[in-house]
C-alpha cells in the first residue's frame, strides 16, 4: 500500500541555527495505521509533525502525501491535502479564537476549503459537536465558556468536521487533568476505530501512546533511533535511549 504520509531522508535546519534539528529521518505512515512520535523535549517531535502538515519545509529530503511530493505551490494538491489531513494541537486555550463562536470555529475547515457556506456548514458542525460529546447549544457559545477538556473536544470537532483521513495531534491531552485525559483518549480511540482514521500523535505520556498507537517511533536529538510495533518498542526496547526514556517515566507507587 502507498503510505499516506512519508518522509524520506528529511533534514531540517532552522534559519540561523548551527545544527540540524531533524537529521536524515525516514518514516512511512500507512493508511489506517496509528503512529506515536516520542522523545525528550527538544528532540524534534513538533518539527516532524509540522513537516507532515506541510507547515515546515525540509531543508533537504522529501515529504510525500499519497506518494506524491508535497508541493505547497500546487493548489490542487494542497486542497486535497488540507481536506484529508487535519490536526489537533496541545493547548486548547490558544488554539481556539476567543472572539469567534464555536459554530464559526468548528466550521472553519469547511469554509476555508470552500465546501460550505455558513448555512450549509451548520448541520455538519452540529453532527461533529454531537460526535465529540458536546451539547447542541455549544455552537452558539464562546470558547471561554468551556473547560480545557471541552475545548479540546471542540478542537477535535473542528478537525473531523470535513471527514479527514488523517489526524495529526501534538500532545493532544497533556494540558488536561488525568480523568479528562482518559476521556479524550477514549474519544480519539473511538474516532480512529469508526472512521478508520490514520493517526500520528506526539505524546510524552507513554501510557497514552500504548493505548492509542500501533506503532512508535523514537526520536533522539533529531534522529530516529528506533521504530516498530509499540509493544516491541515500549516492551522490549533495543536502543539504550529508548530504555532511558521508558525508565525516566515517573510511576505512581502501588
Ligand atoms: N521556529 C524555530 N526556530 C528555531 N528553532 C526552533 C524552532 N522551532 C523549534 N526549534 C528548535 O528545534 C528543536 C526541536 O524543537 P521541537 O519543538 O521540534 O521539539 P519537541 O520534541 O517538540 O519538544 P517538546 O517536547 O518540548 O515540545 C529545539 O531545539 C527547538 O529549540
Ligand atoms: Mg513539541
UniProtKB/TrEMBL annotation:
The keyword Nucleotide-binding applies. Coiled coil: none annotated. One of its GO terms (biological process) is peptide transport. The keyword Transport applies. GO terms for molecular function: ATP binding; ATP hydrolysis activity. Keywords: ATP-binding, Nucleotide-binding, Transport. CDD domains: ABC_NikE_OppD_transporters. Residues 5-246 form the ABC transporter domain. Belongs to the ABC transporter superfamily. This is ABC transporter ATP-binding protein. It comes from Streptomyces cadmiisoli.
Amino acid at each position: 500500500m502507498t503510505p499516506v504520509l512519508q518522509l524520506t531522508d528529511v533534514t531540517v535546519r532552522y534559519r540561523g541555527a548551527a545544527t540540524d534539528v531533524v537529521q536524515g529521518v525516514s518514516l512511512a505512515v500507512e493508511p489506517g495505521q496509528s503512529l506515536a512520535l516520542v522523545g525528550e523535549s527538544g528532540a524534534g517531535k513538533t518539527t516532524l509533525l509540522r513537516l507532515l502538515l506541510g507547515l515546515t519545509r525540509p531543508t533537504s529530503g522529501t515529504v510525500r502525501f499519497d506518494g506524491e511530493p508535497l508541493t505547497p505551490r500546487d493548489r490542487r494538491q494542497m486542497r486535497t491535502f488540507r481536506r484529508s489531513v487535519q490536526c489537533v494541537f496541545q493547548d486548547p486555550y490558544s488554539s481556539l479564537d476567543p472572539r469567534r463562536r464555536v459554530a464559526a470555529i468548528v466550521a472553519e475547515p469547511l469554509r476555508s476549503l470552500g465546501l460550505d457556506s455558513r448555512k450549509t456548514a451548520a448541520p455538519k458542525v452540529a453532527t461533529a459537536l454531537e460526535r465529540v460529546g458536546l451539547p447542541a447549544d455549544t455552537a452558539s457559545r464562546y470558547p471561554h465558556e468551556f473547560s480545557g477538556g471541552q475545548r479540546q473536544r471542540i478542537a477535535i470537532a473542528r478537525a473531523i468536521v470535513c471527514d479527514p483521513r488523517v489526524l495529526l495531534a501534538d500532545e493532544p491531552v497533556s494540558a488536561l487533568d488525568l480523568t479528562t485525559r482518559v476521556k479524550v483518549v477514549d474519544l480519539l480511540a473511538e474516532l480512529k476505530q469508526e472512521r478508520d482514521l490514520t493517526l500520528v500523535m506526539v505524546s510524552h505520556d507513554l501510557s497514552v501512546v500504548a493505548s492509542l498507537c500501533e506503532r512508535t517511533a523514537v526520536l533522539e536529538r533529531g534522529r530516529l533511533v528506533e521504530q516498530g510495533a509499540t509493544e516491541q518498542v515500549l516492551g522490549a526496547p533495543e536502543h539504550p535511549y529508548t530504555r532511558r526514556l521508558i525508565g525516566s517515566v515517573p510511576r505512581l507507587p502501588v
